[in-house]
Each structure stands twice: as structure tokens, then as C-alpha cells.
């Protein structure tokens, strides 16, 4: 059954902690250069990116499993009590070109603790050192293994930014290919259109501390390779309605100072028009992937809503 309202403003004003953190973020070097030339300079001849290592204390806090799939490391965190009823497959963000960030580990850990889920995190090879297709192949393989060992109806796909794109793209491939569908889909500030074609995005850009349109378009072109970045294959925002209709219940969380909020609003509308139970939660003045700032009021609200989503 469809949720009553497609979008809900959960935080009409930023918390004091969020204000402080965003003030600090604005004074640090950006994760991505704010201009196209700077992006290309950083990507040219860079050292092979390395994933931030999982904190060693997690081995005492969780039941940790580590393995390799297609030559890439995959980490699973279970609660201390063991495998949970729900299992999340989580894809980290970073524009498809950055490895696992240090801040991703506390985000994953908080979801294990707060939501009582087991979480599997593929540490995928990044573009351009590896083709984007390799990321999709790894996602398919990890999900296939998980679906053999766990009821697919109790699997939730999740990810932030480019990782949200990966989670959604995986669900769409499963729908097209007739694979076992996950029970739910959760997306944190997903990158839905690699071309950022909607002109309304320009009005948000001055408020976004991390993302800039030109940089993202350059990154999108690199990720697309020889494919059309505006195609549904590369940009899920343009997926036909008949394919969207096969998706499971979906929730999206995005800050209002995030370029991706414009496409998230459009996408939720398209999902609901296709008959999917979908809802968007918005947070005033919150930056890109704000839920990774786990101590904030806003992040805690996200984790509470995610827990409720799993319990429904």
C-alpha cells in the first residue's frame, strides 16, 4: 500500500550539532575538487586508492566475517548475538571513483546497533582503475551468495550517494533478469542522474558544501565510459515505469543542501506513479550524506525511521 505522503520534512531547522559540523566541513579541503579541471588533475596518474580499514575494535563489538568475492574484499558485521533476521547489503559512496571512507565504518556500525541488522559491505574496485561494470558484477555476485544463504524477502539493499545508485541498479537488474528480489530498498542521498540534467539543481548548488555540478558531470562521463550517461542503464532516474513497478518498498533520505535532492523528489514521484510504495524524507540545511555524522539529531532520526521501515 502506498504511503500517504510522498515526501516529508523531518527536520525544519538544522540542529546545533549539524550547524557546527557543516561549519567545519566548509573549512576543510573538499573530497571532490570543485571544478572540472581539478577533478581531472586528481584522477590522472593517482596512486591506487585504498579502502579505509575497518576499525579493529569492531572485532570486539560485532561478529565479523571477511572473505573475497571476485578478488575483492567483502566484510559482514553481525550483532554480537549472531546473524540477524534482516540482512543489509550496503554499498559505500564516493562517486564510483573513491574507496571506502573512514566515516563509512561508523555509519555501518550504527545501523547494526540501532536497527539490529547484519550488514555486508563489498569493498569494490573503483573507476577508472577498474571499469564500472566490475562494480556491478561484484554486486551481483555478493547478492547471489547472500540470497542463497538468507531469505531474499529479508534482504534490504542500501547505499549512500553512488552507493545508493549501485543498490538501486542491482534491484533493477534483478527485476529485469527475474532474480530473487530483495524485500526492501533504502537509499541515502542517491546519485540518480549522472548528467544532472534538471535545471532546478543549479539553485541548490550554492548551498552544497561537497558537490558541484561540473565536477559530477565530469565524474559521470568517466564512469559511463563508452555508454550514454543519460541512458537508463547508467542513470536510473530514466528507468521506464514498467521496470520501476517491480521494485520493492523504497525509502530515500536526503538533505536539502544536497544537489541530489532534486532528482530524489522526481524519482519518488515516478516510483509512486508506477505503483511502488515509496517515500522521501528531507532534512533542512543538511549536507550530502549527512547520516554519516552519526551523533546528530538528524542522523538518529534516519536510523529510527530505518528501524521502523524494517519492522513494518
Summarize this structure briefly:
GO terms for molecular function: hydrolase activity. The protein has about 300 residues and is an alpha/beta fold.
Description:
InterPro entries: AB_hydrolase_3, AB_hydrolase_fold, GDXG_lipolytic_enzyme. One of its GO terms (molecular function) is hydrolase activity. Keywords: Hydrolase. With 312 residues, this protein is α/β, with parallel strands linked by helices. It has one domain: 3-Layer(aba) Sandwich (Rossmann fold), CATH 3.40.50. The protein contains eleven helices and nine strands. The protein has a nine-stranded mixed β-sheet, sandwiched between helices. α4 packs across α11 and α5 packs across α6. The longest helix has 18 residues. The termini are close together.
Strand order of the largest sheet: 1-9-8-7-6-4-5-3-2
Strand content: 15-25%
Give the SSE order as H and E letters. Answer: EHHHEEEHEHEHEHHHEHEH
What is the gyration radius calculated from CA atoms? 18 Å
Distance between the termini: 12 Å
Low-confidence stretches: none
Percent in helix: 25-40%
CATH superfamily: Alpha/Beta hydrolase fold, catalytic domain
Q: Please outline the major beta sheet.
A: 9 strands, mixed
Return the structural class: alpha/beta
How many beta-strand segments? 9
**CATH domain topology:** Rossmann fold
CATH-level-2 architecture: 3-Layer(aba) Sandwich
Oligomer: single chain
Amino acid at each position: 500500500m502506498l504511503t500517504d505522503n510522498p515526501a516529508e520534512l523531518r527536520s525544519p531547522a538544522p540542529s546545533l550539532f549539524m550547524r557546527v559540523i557543516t561549519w567545519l566541513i566548509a573549512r576543510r579541503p573538499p573530497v571532490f575538487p570543485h571544478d572540472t579541471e581539478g577533478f581531472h588533475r586528481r584522477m590522472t596518474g593517482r596512486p591506487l586508492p585504498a579502502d579505509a580499514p575497518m576499525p579493529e575494535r569492531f572485532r570486539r563489538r560485532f561478529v565479523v566475517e571477511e572473505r573475497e568475492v571476485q578478488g575483492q574484499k567483502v566484510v559482514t558485521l553481525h550483532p554480537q548475538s549472531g546473524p540477524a533476521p534482516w540482512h543489509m547489503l550496503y554499498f559505500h559512496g564516493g562517486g564510483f571513483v573513491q574507496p571506502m571512507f573512514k566515516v563509512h565504518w561508523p555509519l555501518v556500525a550504527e545501523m547494526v546497533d540501532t536497527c539490529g541488522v547484519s550488514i555486508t559491505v563489498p569493498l569494490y574496485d573503483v573507476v577508472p582503475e577498474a571499469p564500472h561494470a566490475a562494480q556491478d558484477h561484484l554486486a551481483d555476485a555478493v547478492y547471489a551468495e547472500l540470497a542463497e544463504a538468507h531469505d531474499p524477502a529479508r534482504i534490504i539493499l542500501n547505499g549512500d550517494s553512488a552507493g545508493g545508485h549501485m543498490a538501486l541498479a542491482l534491484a533493477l537488474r534483478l527485476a529485469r533478469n527475474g532474480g530473487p528480489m530483495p524485500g526492501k530498498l533504502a537509499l541515502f542521498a542517491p546519485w540518480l542522474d549522472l548528467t544532472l540534467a534538471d535545471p532546478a539543481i543549479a539553485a541548490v548548488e550554492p548551498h552544497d558544501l561537497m558537490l558541484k555540478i561540473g565536477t559530477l558531470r565530469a565524474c559521470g562521463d568517466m564512469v559511463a565510459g563508452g555508454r550514454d550517461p543519460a541512458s537508463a542503464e547508467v542513470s536510473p532516474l530514466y528507468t521506464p515505469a514498467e521496470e520501476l513497478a517491480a521494485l520493492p518498498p523504497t525509502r530515500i533520505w536526503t538533505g536539502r543542501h544536497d544537489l541530489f535532492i532534486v532528482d530524489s523528489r522526481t524519482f519518488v514521484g515516478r516510483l509512486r506513479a508506477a505503483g511502488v510504495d515509496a517515500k522521501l524524507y528531507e532534512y533542512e540545511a543538511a549536507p550530502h550524506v549527512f547520516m554519516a555524522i552519526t551523533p546528530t539529531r538528524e542522523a538518529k532520526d534516519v536510523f529510527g525511521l530505518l528501524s521502523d521501515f524494517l519492522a513494518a
